[in-house]
Amino acid sequence: MVAQQLEAAQFFPPSVAGELTSELVCDARSVAGVRWERIEGHTLRDDVNPWGGEMFPKLRTVEPQMVTEQSAYDQWLDQTSKREAARNDRIHGAVSVIPVTLWLVLFFTAVLIFLFTLFFADNGERGVVQAVLVGTVVSVIVALLPLLTSLNNPFDAGVGGLRPVAMERTSQIIEEELPIVGLAGPLPCDERGIGL
Questions:
Q1: Is 141 helix (H, G, I), strand (E, B) or coil?
Q2: How many domains does the chain have?
Q3: Is 189 helix (H, G, I), strand (E, B) or coil?
Q4: For the chain, where are the alpha helices, taking DSSP H only?
Q5: Whole-number Å distance between alpha carbons of 148 and 158
Q6: CA spacing 20 to 30 A to 157: which of 17, 106, 150, 183?
């Protein structure tokens, strides 16, 4: 989305195309940088997207004159909506999505299943066989609980947590394209997307 939005910006009047391009690059850096760190730290909430706030006033000054400008403007607005929807999804996913009541039911069910397997104890069977029967059921239940924990916190920095790989790749591609679109000056942000 960001790469397509960057391309659309090149059809805007030169007075805003460069600034919108720079700020879009900073927004991509911010998603993979400082905002991702805040997601992992569970501190990203419904804050206003800082780079969206920078781009919006400039976009309002654009008055498309030609058909290509109008098409680029429409595409920009559509891509902005999609970027913000993806941002809202990340924010929603960063908070625990499995309710406490479900956790209680899962632990209660796990205890019941463990107790139920004990009723299959048979004096005629060796202890090893009975331990394997009970141990197998308990092992499956115990293995599923960390999986649910991982699904409940998908942006955890640990094993199995999501990483901003797609945005990092997109950021790298668009930064390689900057000289092609004629933007060679310094960007208004650092590598993590924090404004200078």
A1: helix
A2: 2
A3: strand
A4: 2-9, 14-32, 34-40, 50-60, 67-94, 100-118, 127-152, 165-177
A5: 14
A6: 106
Strand partners, 195: 189
Cβ atoms of residues 1 and 82 within 8 Å: yes
39 with 131, same domain: the answer is: no
Question: Residue 189's beta-bridge partner residues?
Answer: 195
As a whole number of angstroms, the distance between CA 80 and CA 131 comes to 58
The residue count for the chain: 196
Amino acid sitting at position 100 = V
Nearest Cα to Cα of residue 171 among 193, 156, 186: 193
pLDDT of res. 78: 92
Which residue segment(s) compose the domain that 76 sits in?
2-96+162-177
- Residue 55 in contact with residue 22, Cβ under 8 Å? no
Confidence (pLDDT) at 103: 84
Whole-angstrom Cα Rg for the chain: 25
- Same-domain pairing of 59 and 90: yes
The amino acid occupying position 32 is A
Backbone angles phi, psi at 162, to 5 degrees: -70, 150
